[in-house]
């Protein structure tokens, strides 16, 4: 069983629309994508961003690209032109998601 | 089969012009499309227009035209841009002025107006057209008196019309970024307005191109260190077939990287539901899209699906929502983090003492947690340096100004070894964004295409 931080296996890019941020997360292989499906849930992402995302997190799947898209509401303190945050456009949400650790081996 | 090559010229107001020049010179393109308008750009341009009614367009259009108009004449290149911002007619005048300066004649410059709907809001209200926030249904009442701009996202229609009138240059205000890229395809290939599959491919192409370097190795979260020569990045170029299939590439000899891995990051950028990305021209479904390696710096893109365009258009409004005041200064090792925390406590006590009235206050430690907030991990070592940044949101500009003045005394009367005081930062007006959906015809009835010739 191996505990791995997403930064070592995934790609992620984030961007903003109003007060919403989306983070697209990409797995390198189908096997790892299957693990993401179980490990990187909307609930877990919401919990990961405690203190940063105030609203709901929705997960959309794009298996074709081994990708999942997390839409995080209330994630920018009012939006890019209104927020006091330094990362006012949410560009760093992707790298911040890559801090998350998942169990890679357990799912066989 | 007929093919059209389109280049991406710009991804935002302030982007580099160098890649567009390379594309114009050696990219073999017939069109270059410039996206200059992020959500908040209109707010900046509105302020410019308030100061000077002849301004209010993206000022870098002057450089764009000076550098590229010679290629328009020489190679028959066409330029499409939404640099018109809050004043497309002003941008047209500026373009004509530069053409005259360069001694260029026989140039048709089209301009699309009608996306600016701020003067219509009252009428719409009277007609009972709801302008509730499209995400949470809030009534517009609370912000009505603070609206700074209101613009509709317009689709490809008027841009195609401008091309049909043989425009060399098309300048628009708030069109969707992707419509700028779709319009040449509809014009050249004669795609029907309900050919949802092809329109979807065209919009997808635009979506991949509209953020310039982001589809060519910029802001790449993968193996970014192996992306070569970002100083000379080539912005994406699409070679599109009549059936909608296209290859994304870039001009030879430029830096950056167009690969399946770089392109897929852009594919989902700022998209919410991947099966339903609504644009004025088609609803795009990217869930079955195939990205295929077609050689060095070449990615073949197929499989976009489309369905009927919506009966509504999105209107985005900006409303003033207070002022930002901030101060930034740095502290050096040893104990840099302890020093910035002590300085933060000092400033906060003084904020209380002078009675600075704020609605929100925030402290960040640059070099430690400013980009990752509560998720930043405790540093393992004593950091070499950390910067303190305190920001407040206030009702008035005067209150916001007060914060900066508390910083300089820290140099002599605070913790030791302060450097990098960034000076008095001017308060900045904060703008909230309001999005709503309105029946498309009430916007489209007011759209106009005007062509001027020199």
Write up what this structure looks like.
The complex is a heterodimer of chains A (108) and B (454). Chain A has 108 residues and is an alpha+beta fold. Chain A has one domain. Chain A is 20% helix and 30% strand. A four-stranded antiparallel sheet of chain A has the order 2-3-5-4. Chain A has a two-stranded antiparallel sheet with strand order 1-6. In chain A, a hairpin with a 2-residue loop joins β2 (11-17) and β3. The longest helix of chain A has 10 residues, at 30-39. Chain A is elongated and about 45 Å long. The termini of chain A are close together. The mean pLDDT of chain A is 95. Chain B is globular, with a radius of gyration of 24 Å. Chain B contains 13 helices and 19 strands. Chain B has a ten-stranded mixed sheet, sandwiched between helices. In chain B, strands 5, 14, 15, 16, 17 and 18 form a six-stranded antiparallel sheet that branches. Chain B has two domains: 3-115 and 153-310, no CATH class; 319-433, Alpha-Beta Plaits (2-Layer Sandwich), CATH 3.30.70. Chain B is of the alpha+beta class. In chain B, α7 packs across α8 (196-209). Chain B has helices spanning 18-26, 41-51, 61-75, 88-101, 121-126, 157-164, 177-189, 196-209, 260-267, 336-354, 397-405, 410-413, 440-444; strands spanning 3-10, 31-34, 78-81, 108-113, 147-152, 169-171, 236-241, 246-250, 277-278, 283-285, 290-293, 299-302, 305-307, 312-332, 360-366, 385-394, 418-419, 428-439, 448-453. The mean pLDDT of chain B is 97. At the A-B interface, β2, β3, β5 and α3 of A face α9, β14, β15, β16 and β18 of B.
């Amino acid at each position: 069983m191996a505990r791995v931080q997403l930064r070592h296996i995934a790609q992620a890019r984030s961007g903003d629309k109003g007060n919403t941020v989306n983070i697209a997360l990409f797995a390198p292989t189908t096997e790892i994508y299957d693990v993401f499906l179980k490990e990187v849930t909307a609930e877990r992402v919401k919990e990961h961003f405690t203190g940063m995302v105030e609203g709901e997190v929705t997960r959309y799947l794009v298996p074709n690209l081994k990708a999942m898209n997390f839409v995080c509401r209330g994630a920018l303190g009012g939006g890019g032109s209104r927020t006091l945050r330094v990362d006012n456009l949410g560009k760093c949400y992707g790298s911040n998601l890559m801090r998350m650790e998942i169990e890679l081996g357990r799912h066989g | 089969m007929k093919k059209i090559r389109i280049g991406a010229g710009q991804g935002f107001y302030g982007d580099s012009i160098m890649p567009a020049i390379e594309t114009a010179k050696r990219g073999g393109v017939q069109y270059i499309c410039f996206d200059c308008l992020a959500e908040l750009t209109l707010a900046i341009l509105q302020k410019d227009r308030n100061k000077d009614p002849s301004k209010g367009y993206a000022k870098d259009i002057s450089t764009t035209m000076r550098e590229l108009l010679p290629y328009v004449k020489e190679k028959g290149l066409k330029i499409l841009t939404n640099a018109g911002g809050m004043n497309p007619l002003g941008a047209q005048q500026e373009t004509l002025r530069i053409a005259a300066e360069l001694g260029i004649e026989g140039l048709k410059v089209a301009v699309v107006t009608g996306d600016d709907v701020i003067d219509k809001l009252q009428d719409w209200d009277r007609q009972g057209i709801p302008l509730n926030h499209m995400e949470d249904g809030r009534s517009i009442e609370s912000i009505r008196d603070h609206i700074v701009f209101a613009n509709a996202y317009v689709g490809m229609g008027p841009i195609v019309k401008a091309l049909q009138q043989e425009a060399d240059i098309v300048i628009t205000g708030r069109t969707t970024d992707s419509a700028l890229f779709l319009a040449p395809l509809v014009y050249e290939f004669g795609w029907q307005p309900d050919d949802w599959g092809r329109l979807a491919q065209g919009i997808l192409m635009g979506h991949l191109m509209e953020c310039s370097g982001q589809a060519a190795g910029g802001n790449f979260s993968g193996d970014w260190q192996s992306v070569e020569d970002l100083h000379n990045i080539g912005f994406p170029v699409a070679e599109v077939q009549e059936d909608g299939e296209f290859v994304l590439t870039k001009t030879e000899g430029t830096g950056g990287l167009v690969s399946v891995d770089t392109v897929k990051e852009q594919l989902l950028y700022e998209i919410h539901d991947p099966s339903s990305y609504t644009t004025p021209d088609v609803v795009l479904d990217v869930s079955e899209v195939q990205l295929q390696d077609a050689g060095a710096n070449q990615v073949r893109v197929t499989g976009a699906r489309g369905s009927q365009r919506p009966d509504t258009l999105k209107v985005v409004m900006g409303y003033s929502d207070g002022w930002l005041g901030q101060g930034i200064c740095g502290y050096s090792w040893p104990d840099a983090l302890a020093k910035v925390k002590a300085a933060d406590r000092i400033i906060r006590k003084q904020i209380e003492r002078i009675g600075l009235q704020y609605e929100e206050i925030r402290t960040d430690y640059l070099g430690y947690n400013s980009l990752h907030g509560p998720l930043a991990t405790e540093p393992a070592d004593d950091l070499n340096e950390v910067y303190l940044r305190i920001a407040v949101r206030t009702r008035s500009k005067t209150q916001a100004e007060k914060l900066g003045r508390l910083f300089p005394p820290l140099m002599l009367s605070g913790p030791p070894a302060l450097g990098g005081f960034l000076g008095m930062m001017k308060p900045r007006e904060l703008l909230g964004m309001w999005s709503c959906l309105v029946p498309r015809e009430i916007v489209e009835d007011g759209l106009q295409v005007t062509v001027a010739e020199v």
